[in-house]
From TrEMBL:
Cofactor note: Binds 1 FAD per subunit.
Gene: lpdA
UniProt miscellaneous comment: The active site is a redox-active disulfide bond.
Binding-site residues for NAD(+), renumbered to this chain: G182, G183, G184, V185, I186, G187, L188, E189, E205, G274
Protein name, as recorded: Dihydrolipoyl dehydrogenase
EC class (word): oxidoreductase
Source organism of this protein record: Ferirhizobium litorale
Length: 468
């Protein structure tokens, strides 16, 4: 039998595309090589890391955050195996949830590695080496991404001593020292987990700031907060070598501006220098599917590759490597394939770093507005002036709203603070509707909430805040 749609890969891009297409009446199959669905995000990425971020945050909070609230507790004891079991149970509930949704939506699933034979034909090779050929009107490549490694440096990742994010969520003991190569999202999230559990964490970052691409002010203040938590930073430092030595490893880095190299020892080294599109074994070359210069599957505005009937979404194509961006592309593509008008607004894709405090942003940064020559206004409000934040001893951080100087339309929002990842969405909704700082400032916000700081920052952008 022929399908309307075969999706290769069941991560957030692929599984959401499959479900949406099935809801719209298409006959859908999914090909997945892992034993469970959900891709990197559910199996070894977003979901397990959030379980460990939450658990380690609770551990740290009980150790350091209770006394000031008048709650006297004895020092917490770490049961790492149980923490990992919580993480595994979280993953299982989520991947099982995807399997349930596939069944509910009558989506056929094929376990094995999918290869595009030609437009309309996918070969699936299962673990036993048996090959099955499937026919379909359309193929969606949603194969995601893989660890990129350090550009120009040969590193032997064993996932025990020299680890990627996959090993970073599965260590069986807390290392005494950990070097994190790369001060991006993975490095700071997993670095936070192990620092809270007791490791001495040093982040070595090539750029002069952490979270490259984030608003400069956000990045600077956030780095100070992490430094207060005991994370050490070596910025403007290029890692040129990572080798195993005895039971641990040695990391060599040199100043980007030039100068002498330094070599340091660590029990564990986390390689967090980015991810690359995953296209291996897909048969793209034989099928004639073109890649762009960065090795991503090239697509047009409707997710079409250069071969008719073959589409691609998610980390394997251009744009930020974020699960929710992939999901929205999956929905848009399913709608397009069902004859509807699917669309993603790439100007309003929130991004969250799930550290403590969290960092969340949507839209443009000040640096981007300056570079584009846009005249803008800035409204800022610190959580130190927010009643709820004071009551919770969660005063670290601030909200920053950027709006168009002429029209007052909100162009970007940036939040560092407890719950930033939840609060960012009111700015996203506002931006989606083309709202102004005045609109946000005049929207009644419940008191006392952290979200009032968002309202105050909007008031600050449009006129003046009340509470500052
Ligand atoms: P990243 O691209 O965010 O950061 C990598 C960092 O490594 C950069 O700052 C880069 O300058 C640095 N670097 C590269 N070569 C280096 C060298 N030789 N020496 C020192 N530093 C070097 O990549 P990351 O953190 O690995 O994350 C990969 C992808 O996964 C990203 O696209 C990220 O957005 C996504 N992700 C998103 C999460 C979230 O939204 N919460 C969580 C985890 C990952």
């Amino acid at each position: 039998m022929a399908y309307d749609l075969i999706v290769i890969g069941s991560g957030p891009g692929g599984y959401v595309c499959a479900i949406k297409a099935a809801q719209l009446g298409l006959k859908v199959a999914v090909v997945e090589k892992r034993a469970t669905y959900g891709g990197t995000c559910l199996n070894v990425g977003c979901i397990p890391s959030k379980a460990l971020l939450h658990a380690s945050e609770m551990f740290d909070h009980v150790a350091h955050g209770m006394d000031a609230l008048g709650v006297e507790v004895s020092a917490p004891k770490l049961n790492l195996a149980k923490m990992m079991a919580h993480k595994d149970a979280t993953v299982k509930a989520n991947v099982d949830g995807v399997a349930f949704l596939f069944k509910k939506n009558k989506i056929d699933t094929f376990q094995g590695t999918g290869k595009i034979v030609s437009a309309g034909k996918v070969a699936v090779t299962n673990d036993a080496g048996e090959v099955q050929e499937l026919e379909t009107k359309n193929i969606v490549i949603a194969t995601g991404s893989d660890v990129a490694g350090i550009p120009g440096v040969k590193v032997d990742i064993d996932e025990k001593v020299i680890i990627s994010s996959t090993g970073g969520i599965a260590l069986d003991k807390v290392p005494v020292s950990m070097i994190v190569v790369g001060g991006g999202v993975i490095g700071l999230e997993l670095g936070s987990v192990w620092a809270r559990l007791g490791a001495k964490v040093t982040v070595v970052e090539y750029l002069d700031s952490i979270l490259g691409g984030m608003d400069g002010e956000v990045s600077k203040q956030f780095q100070r907060m992490l430094a207060k938590q005991g994370i050490e930073f070596k910025l403007g430092a290029k890692v040129t070598g990572v080798v195993k030595a005895g039971a641990g490893a040695k990391v060599t880095f040199e100043p980007v501006k030039g100068g002498e190299a330094t070599t340091v020892d660590a029990d564990v080294v986390l390689i967090a220098t980015g991810r690359k599109p995953y296209t291996e074994g897909l048969g793209l070359e034989a099928a004639g599917v073109a890649l762009d210069k960065a090795g991503r599957v090239e697509i047009d505005g409707h997710y079409r590759t250069n071969v008719a009937g073959i589409y691609a979404i998610g980390d394997v194509v251009k744009g930020p490597m974020l699960a929710h961006k992939a999901e929205d592309e999956g929905v848009a593509l399913a709608e397009i394939l069902a004859g509807q008008a699917g669309h993603v607004n790439y100007d309003v894709i929130p991004s969250v770093v799930y550290t403590q405090p969290e960092v969340a942003s949507v839209g443009k940064t000040e640096e981007e507005l300056k570079a584009a020559g846009v005249a803008y206004k800035v409204g800022k409000f610190p959580f130190t002036a927010n009643g709820r934040a004071r009551a919770m001893l969660a005063t670290d951080g601030f909200v920053k709203i950027l709006s168009d100087k002429e029209t007052d339309r909100v162009l970007g929002g940036h939040i560092v603070g407890f719950g930033a990842g939840e609060m960012i969405h009111e700015i996203a909704v506002l931006m989606e509707f083309g709202g102004s700082a005045e609109d946000l400032g005049r929207t009644c916000h419940a008191h006392p909430t952290m979200s009032e700081a968002v309202k105050e920052a909007a008031l600050a952008a449009f006129f003046k805040p009340i509470h500052m």
